[in-house]
Design a protein that fits this description.
This protein is mainly alpha-helical and about 260 residues long. About 45% of the residues lie in helices and about 10% in strands. The longest helix is centred in the last third of the chain and has 30 residues.
């Protein structure tokens, strides 16, 4: 199979696919062919395709789920005019919540509220789960067993990321309005009820006033405190050991107090 033909096949596959495709998934499409390409051939073809699209209106993007063809961000304004229905607009409170989940996962709803200083609306959590941006990783071993939330592969795909390591630093996203232009954040504090977007929530009227303080408060500690989602068990074990130490100290104090009384 010639390199040009291989590139054309991969291009046709990616244009037809409903989701990103990995090299392994593309490789399986050639199983049984007499001239089945190797993985190195596929990777080279993908690389060459990426260079071919350098001056085109679309690009080959590698995200967490694999490779996909997508319109370049520079042309989103015109492409967006194809649809009369406007995309969903989200509140600043929602973006602050997903940022905390991304940088400090696994994290509970209560911990998010402690950082933001306001309660987290159930609508926000529901929206993030329905969009498959957030999932429950487990439950924290404390009274009430609160759910521990973390981001998903779909979250990475949406923001064109291959892994959490590619997230911008907290200093880079301090201006939340520039974090992702497609979110089109609303200043819903000044809107009347009829103007509020679909996913606005009852805490939005306080979110704008606390946004800068919340980000500043987490800027120095979030990266150091943020465990990977695959470290949930270690996170829970640490909590258990701290609780046990506190109980032991309390028992020792009780014994000393009893001895002193006698």
């Amino acid at each position: 199979m010639t390199p040009d033909k291989l590139k054309n096949i991969i291009e046709a596959v990616l244009l037809s696919a409903e989701h990103p495709m990995t090299v392994q998934q593309i490789e399986r499409l050639f199983m049984g062919d007499n001239d089945c390409p190797s993985r190195d051939d596929l990777r080279k073809a993908l690389h060459d395709l990426g260079e071919d699209y350098a001056n085109r209106g679309f690009e080959l993007m590698q995200v967490a789920s694999g490779y996909r063809l997508q319109v370049k961000q520079d042309f989103a304004e015109w492409v967006g005019r194809l649809w009369e229905e406007k995309p969903a607009r989200y509140s600043r409170a929602l973006l602050e919540t997903i940022a905390l989940v991304a940088y400090r996962q696994p994290i509970t709803r209560g911990e998010i509220e402690d950082v933001r200083g306001v309660s987290v609306s159930s609508n926000i959590i529901k929206t993030l789960v329905e969009r498959d941006w957030v999932r429950v990783l487990g439950h924290k071993d404390v009274p009430g067993k609160p759910a521990l939330y973390g981001t998903t592969r779909e979250f990475l795909d949406y923001f064109n990321l291959k892994s959490l390591d590619e997230l911008p630093t907290l200093a880079e996203i301090k201006d939340l309005d520039k974090f992702h232009p497609e979110l089109e954040l609303d200043d819903i504090a000044g809107m009347d009820e009829a103007q509020r977007p679909e996913h606005a929530d009852d805490e939005a009227d306080t979110a704008n006033s606390t946004a800068a303080e919340d980000v500043d408060a987490t800027e120095e500690t979030a990266e150091a405190d943020a465990p990977d989602s695959n470290e949930s068990d270690e996170y829970l074990d640490t909590e258990d050991s701290l609780e046990q130490e506190l109980e032991d100290e309390a028992e020792e104090d009780a014994v000393e107090s009893s001895a002193a009384g006698q």
